[in-house]
Fold each of these.
Amino acid sequence: MLTRELLAAAAHRLAEAGVASPEFDARELLAHVLGTTRPQLALLDETGDGPARAFEALVARRAAREPLQHLTGSAAFRHVELAVGPGVFVPRPETEVLAGWAIDRARDVLAGGRRPVVVDLCTGSGALALSVATEVPGADVHAVELDERAHGWAERNLSGSGVELRHGDMTDAFGDLDGTVDVVVCNPPYIPLEAYESVAAEARDHDPDLALWSGQDGLDAMRVLEGVASRLLRPGGVVGAEHADVQGESAPAVFSGTGRWSDVRDHRDLAGRPRFVTARLAR
Ligand SMILES: C[S@@+](CC[C@H](N)C(=O)[O-])C[C@H]1O[C@@H](n2cnc3c(N)ncnc32)[C@H](O)[C@@H]1O
């Protein structure tokens, strides 16, 4: 079959199904089936019958709104690739800015002559912890995940990275690190229950519930995180936490309302939407 026609038909089918980036997804799936890269597809005039059938089966699953990354088994995040699939939250590009903030803060500590201690609460696939460990080789990185299946994916992704991974609830995690941590980073569950209808099918039907929802206003986990970060951080240590774009004022208020924090600031993602709050533990 002509590769060009195969891709055009697939993109059309995905667009009809409401997939947000139909051409990209079609090319990514064909490259996956053929064991090549998207740019290399331009060199392939024809696709054999076997690969074409395998491709069409994946396109049908994507049209039923299975996440692209579940079909390819992998998600790119900054400079790393994470294995993902059923049972774990697919890391999102908007979280890369929060990762960059945590990396910069860890580098600041290193520049001051100390080995930074970084904790990723709610690690999921391990995306944030692995990025910090990869980009700041001198850091001591710790991560925790509550969900058993997600923890299994994190174990796989963090193996050999030097990150210390624990299985449990962030609420009482890392008591042995109390008062010693330089940077706490977290992408907690934060979608308000009332936003259920507006969430894309890929997330609602395939990301684990524990990764998405967090009480009526979506800030239950943020309130827990505020307390945990204040326990873990050394005086002057910093916390950065992702939130929904509608929480650009309510998420910072969780921190400024307790009187424990200075420099409470909200930050935007690459699309210009409010995305994460940072704060410094008062000395
Ligand atoms: C939005 S996902 C983020 C995953 C990953 N950090 C990322 O950015 O891709 C939130 C994760 O927090 C985990 N989680 C939820 N509540 C938790 C808790 N109390 N303690 C530890 N992990 C928790 C969920 O299972 C899920 O994996």
Amino acid sequence: MRTAEVIVVGGGPAGSAAAKRLKDGGAEVLVLDREVFPRMKLCAGWVTPQVLSDLEFKVEEYPHRFLSFRRLHWHMKGLHLPLPCVQHSIRRYEFDAWLLERSGAEVIQHAVKTIQRDGESYVIDGEYRCRYLVGAAGTSCPVYRTLFRDAMPRVRALQTVTLELEFPFEWSDPDCHLWFFEHGLPGYSWYVPKARGWLNVGVGGMAQRLKHRNEDIWLHWNHLAEKLSRQFGIQLPEEPTGYSYFVRGPVAGARVANAFVTGDAAGLATRDLCEGIGPAIRSGQRAADTILSGAAYEIQNVTGASLGGGLLSHWIDWAFTRRAGLVAVPT
Ligand SMILES: Cc1cc2nc3c(=O)[nH]c(=O)nc-3n(C[C@H](O)[C@H](O)[C@H](O)COP(=O)(O)OP(=O)(O)OC[C@H]3O[C@@H](n4cnc5c(N)ncnc54)[C@H](O)[C@@H]3O)c2cc1C
């Protein structure tokens, strides 16, 4: 049996952030991921200045595609607001592999299935043993499923459903576009260009509200495809792929004994823009800090709002979820 002080299940942004902090702090850490990196990850790849600062990221050291937007175009209820901004895009295929390698942690390809408590240890699939366990394997994280589901049940009203496509495309508009609530969508669609001729387009909405409207996310994908063709002359090369994740609900219970959940495994994406990379990184770093120092696992104050938590954040959150019995967006 292979033994490590800490095992991190999942090598996405949450897992690699935890692994790097742990390695830098002198812990013995092993990352298990079911995929070999670089691996495909559905995501628009929009990253904020806060993400770069949390990662101590230096653009000049990053060897892959990195684009900064001069403007973010908000389209909402017939309004078009071209807002000056400093926001960025990366390709997750490149970014996640780079982050994981940069962590310096040993990574083993292994799809985790079972987790058992054995005294002070956790045993994974009868093959790996650790004292501390970090769950960072996204929505279907086996650490969440085995150890956290009862203490931290998922809130159906906070589940998103998405469709997305990323492909080589010589775009001429270098800005990011977001279209909110079009055709009654409880969510938004996007156009996110990437450096050196790549483009990401997609649509996401709240699953339960779509169901209540008797609608399918594909209906909204078709509206987006039609708009992209009409406004940008884009003919989509293939069908999109889908993924579902949870935006921020209650997080008390994200630590059980020496096990932690982080990122999408804990449902931490923001309630106003469904931004998940930043909260994943912060929660991974905080889990690592707790393991290294013994301090409390403070994820209550990882923000649940991308837009600062003011009136606009609350209004978008309300428009997405109708707040059916939910607590307000944590800021
Ligand atoms: C279509 C779409 C667009 C998005 N756009 C943005 C955006 O532009 N900006 C933003 O900030 N957020 C965005 N998000 C959200 C963001 O992608 C996630 O919140 C973020 O990836 C969460 O990171 P994570 O590390 O928690 O999980 P993930 O990035 O999902 O990483 C989990 C890792 O765990 C591994 N894994 C899964 N199961 C197992 C297992 N059983 N055993 C071992 N390993 C396992 C997976 O292979 C994966 O590598 C988007 C999401 C979607 C679906």
